[in-house]
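REQUEST FORM: STRUCTURE PREDICTION
Request ID: SP-0412
Submitted by: Lab K.M.
Chain count: 1
Length (residues): 333
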Amino acid sequence: MLLRENLREHPAAQAWLATGPNRVAPKMIAVFKGWNQSEKSGVYRLAGVGPGGSAVIAKRCPLHTAAVERSIYEEFLPYLPLPSVGYYGSVEEPDGRSQWLFLEEAEGDLYSPQNNEHRAVAARWLAAAHNTSRRLGREMRLPDRGPKQYLQLMRSLRAKMLEHFTNPDLPSGGVAVLQTVVEQCDVLEGHWSEIEQICDGMPRTLVHGDFVVRNLRLRPSADGPVLLVFDWEFAGWGVPSTDLAQHSGYTASPDLAVYRVCLADWPMLSNKAQVESLAACGRFFRLLDELAWASMGLMYGRPDNLVNPIGNCSACGQRMAQALSEAGWITHS
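STATUS: Completed
RESULT:
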């Protein structure tokens, strides 16, 4: 949706003008995702307000996720020895429940996990981010993204699925989908000690938490493509596993061999098997995140609102079945 009239009255424009005395009103506002308190965020493109008349992305987030993103843009990315998305400030809404973040528009080529050069660039970026975050040590400022947090997420997810077994508005086959996911969670919990053993002793560092195609762009440069990474609302601190997940949905699937070479001075990531095992754990963590996001729609009781969440749970369940089978924990036909 494009807005061309009464732009100064729009909340995104008002917040942008409040960030400094020399700000100008947008020439046009594109609504990428409208703000809704039940959603994760609202995203708008403000045309002509940035440096040189460039566009600025205005993102409205709940306070708790805005705090995470702000800490990344203000306290981490300025120290990363690589180009990053520009940050133009933040403004809290009068409601006291949300905050605006203003960011450079990440223009560039779309990322493809089928492109080996792209995967190598992603691996080098992750290695630089992990080295920088370990040096800075921001653990206390970020949510936990380790095995303990994911075990809690899995148990919460399973409980929610069980609650909806008796929901009369589920579409045909809906109960079977939820039952499959519950059984997969049972299997995964039965092997959780193996996941913890793999992660135990691994270095803890920054985790993006949603390192997927839609949150990456490649900007051309004289030295080759530069990776721009954005949408940090799920960032946290934990073992570097989730962002290493391979070929699950739309994950970036960074080149693990390149990543390992870039972190050759990390003894705990010194061999191929260690890094591959960590990425396999990350695949399970990523799938649990996807299932949790898919299950959010189950809170709505109208039958037409349940079709997509059940379909998304089914798709995630199929990927989980593949991952469990490759781990040797189930027989997948």
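NOTES: The two ends are 44 Å apart (CA to CA).
Reviewed by: T.R.
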